[in-house]
Design a protein that fits this description.
This protein is α+β, with helices and mostly antiparallel strands. Helix content is 28%, strand content 24%. Strand 24 and strand 25 form a beta hairpin.
């Protein structure tokens, strides 16, 4: 990967105090512990006397529950309790309230429909998807709990099943939730300009139906939660692999009728989240309830089949998209009717549908727009955000449509894109849409033409075209594809950072955003070290602990660096001021003449007085006796900042891929994968490269391998890794990376979110490359994954046509 030098990077951005740490590829401090097997995941937390939970899950996609008999299970060896829906009926049903909230500005401007579908903690009357929890067994260990599950007898009366979201919208479709008039969960539409007139007068129009298929985050560590009640204080402590510990704390408190201050949630080490662990689940509420009710610690961890079939799914969308262009290929209008499969419950409201809506236009200038989005309830596992959260789906539709328009006009796909890109001199650029916060959408910064120029140069378009003119080699055809995207990052409303200087001189940074592998303990320490003026290695970072920071949101939506990073920077600058002021009082000099660097406060003149941070923070008249204070100047050196972003920091990127497709086997081989990205100022280039690489790997998985398949009866057919294919490192090619830097004016550090960007474009770019390779057959790629069997089917269908 091509990077600017550390010295070049140290001068980037607005928030760097002296450029010592920001911009350096500091090795991740968390890796040594994790690689030695010393991680502390939820399952590693041994609570004496703990019982384990196992859930009985529905084998039906849609059925009434006629009876549940737990008599035999209660007498099974080691069983402590067995609960059904009747046993927890007094607890409120679960709602992801924060995710379902519609911002006031968005509500006022677009008046979207958002219907609530509370989920019972255990199903009582009927089940709506295969895997829905019906009962829970609590036993001395998981083995005994699983044995007892087999003794629970449930009588079901099957009901009609809806799997296809378009069928679920039919007038004669059975209603999943009988208190709703139909199966629509959300609906929102927006217009810019006069799209009908633009289409009527266009030189060329393409109209297509594209599908983004369903797949699963599938983190290495499945979900897990444990809980314990302190017998002395009565406080409830919960360990969870959650991405949003503060929201989980508040939900537990609400469900159990407790004060939030009496619930302590700790996000332990987390082996991947990717959005799947960013929402609430009923298991996370039932386990704390069981700990309080039984008076014993309780542990539950998910097995892989549960993760694939009963944890949230993602991605499934249908786009009926139209592009209109003039004779030069400049887009004059876009229309898109988007259908999103929500599964059985509305878990996150507008989050994914509206992300798709407001990212559809990407980096292109489109004066006339009509987008209509509907979220539909079906008898499948509920869907929630997964890395990219609505952006990969909408980029797939838009970029595929751009390729079809290029073919219609006989223009090189890269050239067509270049003619439609927003220019740097147009920044900030208003699209005419409304962003997710309810404000007018604006791209704050970026250089989209440069992204594309570099991607085209690296991909060697002319070389690929020359190879294509030679014809197939042993039935293998070469193709090239391009895809571009923007990503609004740094979602609010806020994030928290608290910095405390200990008497030893060490610095403790607590942030509200936990890590699931993003390297927060390294990158946040780099930001704090520069802001305060202390060595990197004296900073200890704590994330995801609701006692360390009483307020927080979490690590979702490419927001941690933008929000927690800038909160850290501002808290660090304030702590720096306090340190200098305290040193001035101690040394008896003017604060204006002091400088703090490497943890030492020095006078500006040669030979002047100095004091180390340890001496300043730890010095007292007598050991164990605090230093006197006048009431105005405290002896503690600490600061807390809640950073509220004024708007979104827009990241962007261009991907290019060269593939070889074997017409006989249908195998797709990636010969060259190019990515050029812009995430503003980069705090740690090595971590940034790892984030982009990981995102692309997951995107390739969705493009070529992964799919959660349902039968018409609502039964998942890919419930194990024998059927659900996850790529290994062998399937991921070496990546040809480059980057540009357009700092964001929306925050002090000039940073943009990076974690999701790599995952946004792979499905689109690989589909375009495969279609380009198979152009001699007349193939059009309208959905993935591009498995060998699907590629062969495309070739056969094109030949039959």
């Amino acid at each position: 990967m091509s990077h600017a030098s550390d010295r070049d990077r140290s001068d980037q951005g607005n928030g760097n105090s002296n450029g010592t740490w920001i911009g350096r590829s500091v090795p991740r401090v968390e890796d040594d512990r994790l690689l030695r097997g010393n991680g502390r995941y939820v399952d590693d937390i041994a609570l004496p006397g703990a019982v384990e939970a196992a859930f009985l899950r529905s084998p039906h996609a849609h059925a009434r529950i006629e009876s549940v008999d737990v008599t035999a299970a209660l007498t099974a060896p080691g069983v402590v309790a067995v609960w059904t829906g009747d046993d927890v009926a007094d607890l409120p049903a679960m709602l992801n309230k924060e995710e379902l909230r519609t911002p006031p500005g968005l509500a006022a401007l677009l008046d979207p429909l958002v219907r609530m579908t509370p989920m019972p903690l255990l199903a009582r009357d009927k089940v709506l998807y295969v895997g829905q929890p019906v009962a829970v067994v609590l036993a001395e260990n998981r083995y005994l709990a699983e044995d007892a599950l087999e003794l629970v007898e449930v009588r079901y009366a099957p009901l009609p099943v809806l799997v296809d979201p378009e069928h679920a919208l039919g007038e004669d479709a059975v209603r999943l939730h009988e208190d709703l008039p139909d199966n629509t969960a959300v609906a929102v539409a927006t217009r810019v300009g006069d799209p009908e007139a633009a289409f009527a007068g266009a030189h060329a129009v393409v109209s297509e139906r594209f599908e983004a298929h369903r797949y699963v985050a599938s983190p290495i560590e499945t979900r897990a939660v444990s809980a314990q009640v302190d017998p002395y204080s009565g406080r409830l402590t919960v360990w969870s692999g959650t991405q949003t510990p503060h929201r989980l704390r508040d939900a537990i408190a609400h469900t159990l009728g407790l004060e939030s201050a009496t619930v302590h949630v700790i996000a332990a080490d987390v082996g991947g989240g990717f959005g799947q662990k960013g929402i609430l689940y009923v298991e996370e509420l039932l386990v704390p309830h069981a700990a309080r009710r039984l008076g014993r610690p309780v542990l539950w961890r998910e097995d892989r089949n549960e993760n694939l079939t009963a944890s949230s799914h993602a991605r499934e969308q249908i786009h009926r998209i139209e592009l209109a262009a003039d004779a030069e290929g400049r887009i004059v209008a876009v229309r898109d009717r988007i259908t999103v499969n929500f599964g059985a419950y509305n878990m996150t409201g507008l989050v994914v549908p509206y992300n798709s809506l407001c990212h559809l236009l990407g980096p292109y200038r489109v004066p006339n727009v009509h987008i209509d989005v509907t979220g539909v309830l079906t008898n499948t596992t509920f869907a929630t955000p997964y890395r990219g959260a609505g952006r990969p789906e909408t980029v797939f539709a838009m970029e595929r449509a751009m390729d079809r328009l290029a073919a219609e006009l006989g223009i090189e796909p890269a050239e067509l894109r270049a003619r439609n890109l927003v220019r740097p001199d147009e920044m900030p650029y208003a699209t005419g849409l409304v962003d997710r916060s309810g404000s007018p959408q604006s791209y704050d910064s970026g250089d989209f033409p440069e992204l594309l120029r570099r991607a085209v140069a690296k991909a060697d378009v002319e070389g690929v075209r020359a190879r294509q003119r030679e014809g197939a080699r042993d039935g293998k055809y070469v193709g090239i594809g391009f895809a571009m995207y923007i990503e609004a990052t740094g979602l609010g409303p806020f994030e928290t950072a608290r910095i405390d200087v200990a008497p030893s001189g060490r610095v403790r940074l607590a942030i509200g955003a936990p890590s699931q592998g993003q390297g927060h303990r390294t990158s946040m320490a780099q930001i704090a070290a520069d802001a305060i003026g202390v060595p990197f290695d004296v900073i200890d970072v704590v994330g995801g602990d609701t006692e360390a920071t009483p307020f927080g949101v979490g690590t979702i939506a490419s927001r941690a660096l933008v929000n927690a990073g800038n909160a850290t920077h501002r808290a660090g600058r304030l702590v720096r001021e306090k340190i200098v002021e305290a040193a001035a009082r101690r040394l008896g000099v003017d604060a204006g003449g002091l400088d703090l660097s490497d943890g030492i406060v020095r006078a500006g003149e040669p030979g002047g007085p100095s004091i180390s941070l340890a001496e300043l923070a730890g010095k007292a008249p007598l050991p164990g006796i605090p230093e006197p204070t006048d009431g105005r100047h405290g002896t503690e050196i600490s600061e807390t900042v809640h950073f509220r972003p004024p708007g979104f920091a827009v990241a962007s990127g261009a991907h290019a891929a060269v593939v070889e497709v074997d017409e006989h086997t249908g195998e797709v081989e990636i010969l060259h994968y190019v990515v050029v990205h812009d995430a503003g100022n980069i705090v740690n280039p090595m971590i940034a490269e790892g984030q982009v690489t990981g995102g692309i790997a997951q995107g390739i998985g969705g493009a070529l391998y992964e799919e959660m398949v349902y039968g018409p009866d609502g039964q998942p057919r890919t419930g194990t890794y024998m059927d659900y294919l996850v790529p290994t490192s062998s399937e991921i090619p070496d990546l040809d990376m480059d980057e540009i830097f357009t700092p964001s004016p929306m925050n002090d550090l000039g940073v943009k979110g990076l974690g999701e960007g790599g995952a946004i474009a792979p499905q689109a770019v690989l589909a375009g490359a495969v279609e380009d390779a198979l152009r001699p057959f007349g193939v059009v790629v309208r959905r993935g994954p591009l498995s060998p069997s699907r590629v062969r089917a495309l070739i056969r269908a094109a030949a039959d046509a």
